[in-house]
Specification:
The chain has 261 residues and is of the alpha+beta class. It contains 8 helices and 12 strands. The strands form 5 sheets. Strands 2-1-7 form a 3-stranded mixed sheet.
Amino acid sequence: IARLILDDVFGAKCFQSEIIWSYRRWSNSARKLLPAHQTILFYSKGRDFKFNTIFTGYSPTTNVDQILQRRSRDDSNKSVYARDQNGNVVYGGRKRGVPLSDVWEIPFLNPKAKERTGYPTQKPILLLEQIIRLSTDEGDVVLDAFCGSGTTLVAATLLGRSAIGIDISEQAVELTRRRLAEPVKTESKLLKNGLQSYKTANHHALALLNGISYTPVQRNNGIDAFLAETYQGVPIPLRVQRDGETVAEAASALYRAAMTK
């Protein structure tokens, strides 16, 4: 129903995406499936609109070769690994990650979250930050005509945007003012590390990387993870030295995994 109404208001041609906000809830549902998502309908004002592509990290199950090595097309237009004049596989250049999809895994505010205000419809700042990054740049103006607890305004302010909020409730307006005076944002370890980081097969090796921001991988015997930050746009693979393995052997395994198919 909401889609039909919004098509009538903005025009069906201005519909851009249906976004699924997926999260975990801290409640039980005995006689029905537990609600764990909400829908966000993305409309533009017209055909000419601002859209900033957001890149996310590679999945741990992504084939490492696809990240490290560059591909080209042969005479049959088949995708093959690019090679230099000596026949060696060419190391990939700058990799920005995977473009953001229309399914967003952003944690719901837990009952003890620092930013929780008690407002019944409050959304996490992380969610509004992602929406704002998609469609605005620093210095732009963000309008929320039903600002409620003020999360949109807080997120916009933290991202260097100007913000205008409107609400019929005086309590909502006062709450928003207080939040803008002292913005509080809850950081999510789950979102920062990634859901798959809790499901990796090599728990022992990755436990030794505690304190390092990384993305674990599963489909490679020589590489355990990638650093979250790249060096000059190039992903940095990691390997934890195994028991009984020399430094030279560990380095050799890492090199082979990084440079060969």
